[in-house]
Specification:
heterodimer; A: 242 residues; alpha/beta; six-stranded mixed beta sheet; four-stranded antiparallel beta sheet; 36% helix; B: 286 residues; mainly alpha; ABC transporter involved in vitamin B12 uptake, BtuC
Chain lengths: 242, 286
């Protein structure tokens, strides 16, 4: 499912965090979003995922176009995401963090339900994939920062949506965790998912991304294949300050 | 010695009533993060519903009272708190709105049933009294303690073992993320208000059976429930229970050598001490 923005705008107190941005993110590829701090990368996915309301322009998901996305509608738009500053349900166990997503959306049904074997199997599969199975009964608040990042990635997998937004998923991770999450992103790509990756590590961008979009001051600065874009003079100047 | 036993029994009874108030208050506070002052009037509503259905058998009037409290809580969330939350009203606005609701409902009850106290129908033809190590208590007191235990354990089971409970915990932790992962937080809040208000209703009915009902009965119950919740740790189920019993014991043993009118001074003194020295409460980390 493709994801497009058309003249998308978001401003805070007169500052244009996203400034008339028109981009297209295709399914089956990993699209990296780059830019210096404050360039509007996180704001962009906050707008796409309903955290911030759209101030102007539109978002197209598949064949449908929207000028507003509310938070609770995000799963219905087939979107899921991770957060730059990790956000898991801290007072719940690792397992419950996933079961609450896999469970019925009907409150009255869930009142008399416990997790079904199918839901437990799915949670187990996801936790093994992200390497947290051994920690399944630990409170999320007791996990290390990197492990909580892994749990967020697990949440994305458990939600099984077509559009997956990753906001600096590798930050705070040990090399083996980075390798594991890189593999997960590659798998999602092979499954034809739409993947957006915000990342500062250029080596990871080169290794993982098929396409990159560079933002500066909320605007589109460059886009294309990573090697070509990262060699562009304006990108080096804006992003690396060289 | 008998006096100490009696004070201990009184403390347990008081702690149980405060537990019932704190359980519902903490449940709604955990999910919504605002001080729902209207929680107190839910106890009054339940008590007066039982009174209204006095001609009916207790197995009809008591569930009707609990359901009425839950229903009013649910309706208040749907019609007042939820629209305010959608308009991004601050917690202060929500608190003031809930105070308005409390006052309005309390006045309506007084208009309908008069400001005078009323007696609920007798739950026992002759209330049995028990003696334990020189202290005495009635069957209604036993019912109060048992109800508090059942409600606390039931709520614990609901939150820990059902998917509904896990969703409540998720919303308490991070409402925004809960929405993004597909939890219908608005509907859930309504359900939370129903459960929390129904538990306050249990407290109101039991107090009514033990003593009398009066339109202004909600405020003292609310305040003791809030003190229990704060000193135990706001939003924490077992913290609220611990806070309720600590309050019950401190209040009752505090008046050992002085007049019973000092009870509230002692209760609020305890609250102030906690606010200064351990504002996060007993069970919560700073």
């Amino acid at each position: 499912m493709s994801l497009k923005t058309k003249n998308l705008e978001k401003h805070f107190d007169g500052v244009h965090a996203v400034d008339h941005l028109s981009i297209e993110i295709k399914p089956g590829v990993i699209t990296g979003i780059l830019g210096p701090n404050g360039s509007g990368k996180t704001t962009l996915i906050n707008v796409i995922s309903g955290i911030h309301p759209i101030d102007g322009g539109e978002i197209a998901i598949g064949s449908q176009t929207f000028s507003s996305i509310k938070r609770h509608e995000v799963p219905d738009f087939d979107i899921t995401r991770t957060f730059q500053n990790v956000r898991v349900f801290e007072q719940m166990t690792v397992m419950d963090n996933l079961l609450v997503i896999l469970s019925s959306r009907s409150v009255l049904t869930s009142l008399r339900q416990r997790a079904t074997p199918k839901q437990l199997d799915r949670a187990q599969e996801v936790l093994k994939k992200v390497g947290l199975w051994e920690k399944r009964n630990s409170l999320a608040s007791k996990l290390s920062y990197g492990q909580r990042k892994l749990l967020e990635v697990g949440r994305v997998l458990a939600m099984d949506k077509k559009i997956n937004l990753f906001d600096e998923p590798f930050a705070g991770m040990f090399p083996e965790m980075v390798k594991r999450v890189s593999g997960i992103l590659q798998n999602l790509k092979q499954c034809g998912k739409t993947i957006v990756l915000i990342e500062h590590n250029m080596q990871l961008i080169r290794e993982l991304c098929d396409y990159v979009i560079v933002m500066d001051a909320g605007k589109l600065l460059a886009q294309g294949e990573p090697e070509k874009v990262l060699a562009q003079k304006n990108v080096i100047e804006a992003y690396l300050g060289e | 010695m008998d006096f100490v036993v009696q004070l201990t029994i009184n403390s347990i009874i008081a702690g149980s009533i405060y537990t019932l108030m704190a359980l519902g208050f903490n449940l709604t506070y955990g999910a919504t993060k605002f001080f729902n002052l209207a929680h107190g009037v839910m106890a009054t509503i339940a008590g007066y519903t039982v009174f209204y259905f006095s001609s009916q058998p207790l197995y009809i009037s008591i569930p009707a009272g609990i359901f009425a409290a839950g229903l009013v809580g649910y309706v208040l969330d749907r019609t007042i708190y939820s629209p305010l939350r959608k308009r991004k009203a601050s917690n202060m606005v929500l608190l003031v709105a809930s105070l308005g609701v409390f006052t309005a409902l309390e006045s309506l009850i007084a208009l309908k049933f008069s400001s005078q106290h009323q007696s609920l129908p007798e739950i026992f033809a002759s209330v049995p009294t028990f003696n334990l190590f020189g202290g005495s208590f009635t069957a209604i007191h036993l019912l109060i303690v048992a109800s508090a235990a059942v409600c606390a354990l039931g709520l614990h089971a609901l939150l820990k073992y059902t998917l509904f409970g896990k969703a409540i915990n998720a919303v308490s932790d991070d409402e925004e993320v809960s929405k993004i992962v597909g939890i219908n937080t608005n509907r859930l809040m309504g359900q939370v208000f129903f459960v929390g208000s129904a538990i306050a209703g249990v407290a109101g009915i039991l107090v009514g059976f033990d003593t009398v009902i009066i339109p202004i009965m909600g405020m003292p119950l609310l305040l003791k429930g809030i003190i229990a919740a704060i000193i135990g740790g706001l939003g924490s189920l077992w913290g609220g229970v611990l806070g309720a019993f600590l309050l019950g014991f401190v209040e009752n043993f505090g008046i050992w050598h002085i007049s019973g009118e000092w009870k509230d001074v002692i209760a609020f003194g305890l609250l102030i001490l906690f606010l200064i020295f351990r504002p996060q409460g007993i069970l919560k980390k700073s």
